[in-house]
Amino acid sequence: MGNLRPITIGEIDYANAWPLFKGFERHAGDLDYEMIARVPAELNRMLSAGELDVSAISSFSYGQFCKDYVLLPGLSVGSVGRVHSILLFMKEPLAKKKPERVAVTTTSATSVNLLKIIMAMRFECEPEYVPAAPNLQDMLKDADAALLIGDPAITASWNCAGLHVMDLGEVWHEWTGLGMTYAVVAARRSAAAEQGEALRAVYQGLHDSKEELLRHPEPLITRACGLLGGEAEYWRTYFRSLQYDFSGKLQEGLALYFRYAKELQLLYHHVELTFYEEQSPQKVKE
Question: Record's CDD domains (predicted)?
C-alpha cells in the first residue's frame, strides 16, 4: 500500500478483546502489517515508546499520553454494568472489614486505578496496594484482597469458594450510573500523519472484524471453551455483556474516570478524548 514498512498493531491478549482482532486478517486486504499480541501493560509501554503505530491499550494509558495519541472511534472494550473479568477477590466482605492490603495485577493500568478510585471515593478506604503477578493463591498469601483482570480473573472466578468477589464494572455502574471503558484503540499521532492510508485500512479492518464477530460470536465461544474452559453459555453471556462501540455513555463514563483520577492525583492533567476521523466508517465527534 505504498508504505516503507509494515504498520505495527498491538493486540490485547485476552478474550475480552477477541472481537476486535480475531477476524482482522479476513478484513485486512493487502495491508502490510505486523500484529503483536501482549497483555495491556506491555502494549501501553510499547505504544508510548513508539514500538507500535496503533494498539489496543489500557484507557488509563491513553489518559497519560493523550497528547501523543488519537482514538479510533467505535472501538473499545467496556461495559455498562458487570464486566465479569475485572474482579476483586476479598477474604472478608467490605461491609465487615475494609481491606488494609490489596495485591493488584501488574498487567493493566485502568483496572488498578479504577479500584483506587472506587475504594477511596465510594468506600472511603485507602489500603496499601502491592503489585503482584496474576496468581490468585499467591496474591492472597500476604494480602486481604486481590485484583485480577482478563482471562486470569475469569478462570479464578470459577474456583474461588470462600472468597467474596466484587465486579468493578458493576460497582462503577451502580455508583455513577455510567458505563466504563477499560481499553481503547489508539494510534500515535505520528502514525496518523505518516501512514494515513495504512491506518485507515487498520481502522476499517478492526471495525469490520468487530461487526462480524459480534453478529456471529460462535467462533469466539468455541475458541474460549477450547483455550480457557467453561461452558458455552457462560462465554455467550460474557461476550454479550461487553460493549465494543465506545458509545456516548461509555465516553461519558471514561471522562468521569479521568476526572476522578485527576482529583486523586493518579493523573496530573486534564484528558480530552480526541478521535481519528479521516475516512472513518462511522463519524464519531470529539
Answer: PBP2_Sco4506
Measured CA to CA, the distance from residue 187 to residue 193 in angstroms comes to 10
Q: How many CB atoms lie within 10 A of CB 237?
A: 12
Give the pLDDT confidence of 23-72 residue by residue, as tens digits: 999 999 999 999 999 999 999 999 999 999 999 999 999 999 999 999 99
Angstrom distances, CA of residue 91 to CA of 4, 41, 75, 162, 208: 54, 27, 36, 7, 43
Distance (Å, whole) CA 57 – CA 256: 18
Helix/strand/coil (H/E/C) assignment for every residue in 42-55:
HHHHHHHCCCCCEE
Q: What are the phi and psi torsion angles at 160 (to 5°)?
A: -135, 40
DSSP state of 21: H
Cell matching residue 168: 468493578
134-167 tens-digit pLDDT: 999 999 999 999 999 999 999 999 999 999 999 9
Beta strands in the chain (DSSP E): 7-12, 33-38, 54-58, 69-79, 86-90, 101-105, 128-132, 145-149, 164-167, 180-188, 242-243
Write out the H or E segment, with its range, that includes residue 138: helix 136-139
Q: Is the pTM of this model over 0.70?
A: yes
Q: Are 86 and 158 in contact (CB under 8 A)?
A: no
Nearest CA among 150, 254, 278, 274 for reference residue 202: 278
Phi then psi for residue 73, to 5 deg, are: -65, 150
Rounded Cα distance between 206 and 268, Å, is 32
Give the cell for residue 133: 503477578
Whole-angstrom distance, CA of residue 30 vs CA of residue 11: 19
d(CA 202, CA 124): 43
